[in-house]
């Protein structure tokens, strides 16, 4: 019975002041601790408290060691840990699965070779010639090893397989035509070269060369362009700028062309987002102003519809956020003409990707391969470049036709009712 007058018992309180990690005990340490429990005057609880571990954990080690010693004594062999046994059994099951799979594949191949008995010996000869052992090939294909060895020694040399189909056409004439084209157009790859060759063949009434043949000839003579290795775009545009009907959406942008003497020419242009025709442009050695953009609009409208005061139907006018396009007078003038001003999001040139692509085409195929000593030479050659682009430049989105070829074919199909 406990009296209320008895002094209170002192209780042991442990204060945890830091994160304690579980200690990993080696096998030797476990054996030493278990042996220590068998010493006179020692117990599992005392040894566990002395070394700072749970008594039940030490008791489990002691029990497992006793059980393992009895098992080893009864079997007369060493005791293997259960984890190693499980890993070994898992490996055995995996090997058995692979063996069964390979056995099934072997049976399938053997049945297939039985159905093609005339070709079995020839296939065996090919395998042996490739370095396979004769005995292994004979066993796998169900052949007699002496018969295979003797027939291999007496078998005549196999004739090379003859080429099927028509012989390849001579490449000298095609190579000359390709070299003549890329001498004037060094930035054209095999796709656009094939488009020009196809155009010549259609004009002369003869069959056009195959695009794969053009690629093969250009590759054999080191005439292919180096692959573009530009970096990925930082911003992806999910919209679609192109339209299926002409005079539905026009786009505009500007670029700067530097002459060799340091003079610069600023150019603004207008494209149709269906047929990609460069309908009009303005060029100046000063900056592009709102008045220049309004002149560009008038020139594009007159090019497509003649001297009209207003468009017969509304057309979208897609531009970036340049000050010349955002000017109040410019936007009012566009609406008076029948154009609907549309601007891209800020810092998103991909939203006007068709105009950006035209800028790259103009600089790559025309500006960089031309001699431009001064601004006057740029202004003089600019209409020549745009005429070549509209009349002759193959465009991938137009089936490798030029913009005006595409317009002519579309007009003919519309008139004929196709």
TrEMBL record:
Residues 236-411 form the Integrase catalytic domain. Pfam families: HTH_21, HTH_Tnp_1, rve. InterPro entries: HTH-like_dom (IPR025948), Integrase_cat-core (IPR001584), RNaseH-like_sf (IPR012337), RNaseH_sf (IPR036397), Transpos_IS3 (IPR048020), Transposase_8 (IPR002514), Trp_repressor/repl_initiator (IPR010921). It comes from Methylobacterium durans. Gene3D superfamilies: Ribonuclease H-like superfamily/Ribonuclease H (3.30.420.10). Residues 147-168 are annotated as: Disordered. GO terms for molecular function: sequence-specific DNA binding; transposase activity. It comes from the Bacteria. GO terms for biological process: DNA integration; DNA transposition. This is IS3 family transposase.
């Amino acid at each position: 019975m406990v009296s209320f007058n008895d002094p209170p018992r002192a209780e042991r309180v442990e204060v945890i002041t830091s994160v304690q990690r579980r200690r990993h005990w080696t096998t030797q340490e476990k054996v030493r601790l278990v042996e220590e429990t068998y010493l006179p005057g020692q117990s599992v609880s005392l040894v566990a408290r002395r070394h700072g571990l749970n008594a039940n954990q030490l008791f489990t080690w002691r029990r497992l060691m006793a059980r393992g010693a009895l098992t080893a004594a009864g079997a007369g062999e060493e005791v293997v840990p259960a984890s190693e046994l499980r890993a070994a059994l898992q490996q055995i099951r995996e090997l058995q699965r692979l063996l069964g799979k390979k056995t099934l594949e072997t049976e399938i191949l053997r049945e297939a070779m039985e159905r093609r008995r005339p070709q079995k010996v020839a296939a065996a000869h090919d395998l042996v010639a490739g370095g396979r052992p004769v005995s292994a090939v004979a066993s796998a294909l169900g052949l007699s090893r002496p018969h295979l060895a003797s027939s291999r020694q007496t078998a005549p040399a196999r004739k090379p397989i003859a080429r099927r189909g028509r012989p390849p056409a001579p490449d000298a004439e095609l190579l000359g035509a390709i070299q003549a084209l890329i001498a004037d157009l060094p930035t054209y790859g095999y796709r656009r070269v094939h488009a020009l060759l196809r155009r010549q063949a259609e004009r002369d009434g003869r069959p056009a060369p195959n695009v794969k043949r053009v690629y093969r000839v250009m590759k054999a003579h080191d005439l292919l362009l180096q692959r573009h290795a530009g970096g990925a775009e930082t911003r992806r545009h999910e919209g679609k700028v192109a339209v299926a009907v002409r005079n539905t959406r026009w786009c505009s942008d500007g670029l700067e062309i530097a002459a060799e003497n340091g003079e610069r020419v600023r150019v603004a242009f207008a494209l149709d987002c269906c047929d990609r025709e460069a309908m009009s442009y303005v060029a100046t050695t000063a900056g592009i102003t709102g008045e220049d953009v309004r002149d560009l609009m008038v020139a594009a409208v007159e090019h497509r519809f003649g001297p009209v005061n207003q468009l017969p139907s509304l057309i979208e006018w897609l531009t970036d956020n340049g000050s010349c396009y955002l000017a109040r007078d410019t936007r009012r003038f566009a609406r008076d003409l029948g154009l609907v001003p549309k601007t891209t999001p800020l810092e998103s040139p991909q939203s006007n990707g068709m105009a950006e692509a035209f800028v790259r085409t103009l600089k790559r195929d025309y500006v960089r391969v031309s001699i431009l000593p001064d601004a006057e030479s740029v202004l003089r050659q600019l209409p020549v470049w745009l005429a070549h682009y509209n009349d002759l430049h193959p465009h991938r989105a137009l089936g490798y036709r030029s913009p005006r070829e595409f317009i002519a074919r579309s007009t003919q199909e519309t008139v004929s009712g196709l």
